[in-house]
Specification:
Largest sheet: 5 strands, parallel
Strand content: 5-15%
Strand order of the largest sheet: 11-10-9-12-13
Structural class: alpha/beta
Distance between the termini: 43 Å
Radius of gyration: 29 Å
């Protein structure tokens, strides 16, 4: 365990909270100190739920440690049952309360409550949030579905959807999209769990012929238990992207005894665009992908096979699925990054020099600092990635969403580059009058401004004077004169302190902004390695030729 500014996953009890918050009729009594109640904000502020998660905290304080915290836990259990009247009670301890060794499961059994109690053993210092969610769902399925053999043979075209949870990345919309596709292909979806399910629904899981695991990180353990205990096979092909969705539907139809080739599909724009002439702009773009295993592996497949990108990096923070990600990375000729250290991920992005980053909320922040286009494809995410609109990642409509989310940042980068190219044009410069006003005279370089007015600085002017004041600043400080052509400008870069001439800086601005940072870094490393000082236009093109070999 290490202290970190960012973390990809919380402790296991947060995963248990996700399962409880996903279901109806389930309440979670969490033995925890006062400070551990922060997790409520994940649901109310980030996911924007209209109610608090169904969790009761014992919220003991430091002064309570001199007495019996176990009595406080039992009181919290009785009060929760009396107040909320749940169908089932989950009990467990947070990472802090685990140190007290109060045994929430044993304490709850002594109360002889009139509802089922499922104790959770969540080793907070060995496991993390996603494992906690998977373990909680597995325990609930075992407790509710039982081990009794199934009565009769279910219809072959009946299935369950397993894995969607609260705080899952676009899980709500994915379920809606996939359930509609399955219905259109003649499948009968019996239960969707844990999202929206009750304990009674989990008891009905064996009444379907097979299971569909949408998110293996959550439902793989439970699906394998159902397969061993009730003989229920399962499908775990991820329906992300056009190709992935078609493969998924063929596999599901075959398992349901239907014609695997008669897939009922829906129109998508991604396939059309991939065949269009405009898509050649995207061919070979370098993309770095990082996230949970399901979304990272699927994103790499879509990026390479459906959009023509070159996958230059692939990784996950989920060590339980490291083997799957390594296998996928090997298929792209690269080595997988398995790490939950965001600084290590940032270093890998810098080394890979991508033109697009697909990742979590953390990779979005990293890409913004590096001025690289980015899109979020996986949890953990922030509030903007729980949109009010319908925005799935799975299915054919999900492929359209991927197209918009991934391609638009690159296309907008091209647009900004074109605007930058023409910013000094006589017709399009900042002081030019609108072209449709024929009688207006354009404000050219020699135009005299009215007394008392000041020219606005250019929007792309990042070269500030040494005092930190720009032209027209409210302090009234007069701006310094612009450096003469060929004179060096000090530009602080980490780790190299390079000197650029004004001509070289102007030439660098002609490079598209979304690769400008990469061009600057390459040139500075080239100059440092060859002892060149200052960096001139010639140095810029020598570095370009060197790195193009």
């Amino acid at each position: 365990m290490q202290l970190s500014l960012w973390t990809y996953e919380g402790p296991p009890h947060v995963g248990a909270m996700r399962i409880a918050a996903s279901m109806q009729g389930v309440h979670f009594v969490l033995h925890a100190p006062q400070g551990d109640t922060y997790a409520d904000l994940l649901f109310t502020m980030i996911e924007r739920r209209d109610s608090r998660p169904p969790v009761t905290y014992t919220t003991f304080q430091a002064r309570d440690l001199g007495g019996s915290t176990a009595d406080g836990f039992k009181t919290a259990c009785r009060n929760a049952v009396e107040r909320f009247r749940p169908d089932l009670l989950l009990v467990g301890a947070s990472c802090t309360a685990e140190l007290l060794q109060d045994d929430p499961g044993g304490l709850a059994r002594t109360l002889e409550l009139d509802i089922p109690v499922v104790p959770l053993d969540l080793p907070s210092y060995q496991k993390k949030e996603t494992w906690g969610a998977a373990e909680t769902f597995y325990r609930l399925v075992r407790a509710c579905a039982g081990s009794a053999p199934r009565q009769g043979t279910p219809p072959r075209a009946s299935c369950n959807l397993l894995g969607p949870t609260a705080l899952g990345f676009r899980n709500r919309d994915d379920v809606r999209e996939i359930a509609a596709l399955l219905a259109a292909n003649g499948l009968d979806v019996r239960v969707i769990a844990p999202l929206g399910a009750r304990p009674q629904d989990l008891a009905r899981l064996p009444e379907a012929a097979f299971n569909i695991v949408l998110y293996p990180e959550i439902a793989d353990t439970a699906a394998r238990w159902l397969q061993r205990t009730h003989g229920m096979p399962f499908v775990s092909t991820s329906p992300i992207g056009v190709g992935g969705t078609r493969d998924f539907l063929r596999e599901v139809r075959a398992m349901a005894g239907l014609d695997a080739d008669a897939v009922a599909s829906a129109p998508d724009r991604l396939s059309w665009y991939s065949r269009s002439i405009d898509s050649t702009y995207l061919t070979g773009k370098r993309v770095f992908i990082f996230g949970d295993a399901t979304h990272a592996i699927a994103a790499a497949r879509v990026a390479s096979r459906e959009l023509g990108f070159q996958v230059c990096g692939l990784g996950t923070y989920m060590r339980e699925f490291a083997r799957d990600v390594r296998e996928a990375a090997a298929g792209h000729g690269i080595e997988a990054l398995i790490s939950d250290d965001h600084l290590e991920v940032e270093a890998a992005i810098l080394e890979a020099r991508p033109e697009l980053v697909l990742g979590t909320q953390m990779e979005r922040h990293i890409a913004k600092r590096l001025r690289v286009p980015c899109a979020v494809i996986s949890a953990p995410v922030h509030v903007q990635d729980f949109p009010a609109r319908y925005s799935p990642q799975m299915g054919f409509e999900g492929a359209n969403v991927l197209f918009d989310s991934w391609v638009h940042p690159l296309m907008m980068g091209l647009e900004e580059h074109l605007l930058g190219m023409f910013r000094d044009d006589f017709e399009f410069n900042d002081q030019a009058a609108p072209s449709h006003l024929g009688s207006a005279k354009a404000a050219g370089p020699e135009t005299t401004l009215p007394a008392g007015s000041a020219a606005l600085p250019h929007v792309d002017d990042r070269m500030k004077v040494a005092t930190g004041q720009a032209a027209g600043d409210a302090t009234g400080t007069a701006p310094l004169a612009a450096p003469a052509a060929g004179s060096p400008i000090a530009v602080a870069q980490d780790p190299v302190l390079a000197l650029w001439t004004a001509d070289a800086e102007r030439e660098l601005k002609k490079v598209p902004f979304f690769v400008r940072g990469k061009a600057r870094r390459n040139t500075e490393h080239f100059a440092a390695a060859n002892g060149i000082h200052p960096i001139t236009v010639e140095t810029l093109y020598d570095a370009k030729a060197h790195f193009a070999r």
